[in-house]
Amino acid sequence: MSFRKRILLVDDEEPVLFVLSEGLAMLGEEYEIVTAGGGHEALDKMEEMSFDLVITDIRMPDIDGLQFTEIIKALNPAAVVIWITAYDCYKMRGDADRLGVYRCLDKPLEIEEIRRTVREALGEGRSKPEAGSGESSSKD
Q: Rounded to whole angstroms, how far apart are CA atoms 131 and 93?
């Protein structure tokens, strides 16, 4: 019996959660997608179960993605985290590097790009880039 990889998606925008969860569900049955509408809900879910990957928005009303990532990394320094934001990943590069964020992706997201990034982050693609590499989908 193979184990499913569990991914936690965190975003306060319901349409973003829906599109991401549907898009990632197409990766196959070996992935379990769990969603949370904010940082507090995500922390509650993390108390209930473990996750192989956390994908979180940066700007959220209850706990922002930066604070959320700091909490995750304090609990599990090896946690794999991907940030998504509409506010320019490049400006957040220092925080991403400091916290060991796997990658930051700018919204709007391309579903195929997020699928590829998830596969890579979970060790199913090419080798891991430097933490917080700042790679993004921005057009510069």
A: 10
